[in-house]
Amino acid sequence: xxxxxxxxxxxxxxxxxxxxxxxxxxxxxxxxxxxxxxxxxxxxxxxxxxxxxxxxxxxxxxxxxxxxxxxxxxxxxxxxxxxxxxxxxxxxxxxxxxxxxxxxxxxxxxxxxxxxxxxxxxxxxxxxxxxxxxxxxxxxxxxxxxxxxxx
Length: 151
Description:
By secondary structure, the chain is mainly alpha-helical. It is built from six helices and three strands; from the N terminus they run H-H-E-H-H-E-E-H-H.
């Protein structure tokens, strides 16, 4: 019997490709959001203003990569940097009104697409899928990425 983890890895890669396709198909509204911009804006919309270092850590990316991506959303007027009152050397990234509208429209469009994709699924099936995805994401968050992965 094949190791289920082999199939999970394959399905995760398929999911990654499918979510990229959903991203492309759900670009709507006046502002077309790049995938990185969408992620940053969702993080801030869900959790509130963040320091750039915290955004980099959330995505497990180098701060220089996040800095370029943040500059793009600031340039578009979707987010603004302000001085962090708790440490005036640092800045916080928060949504602008335009950013709130853009992320709201993008999410609504994606959720309508998910409604259509999952229309044939029962409520129990959708709930079980959401529960499994939530647990998987929580497990990844709890996992120490610095632990060595066995060969």
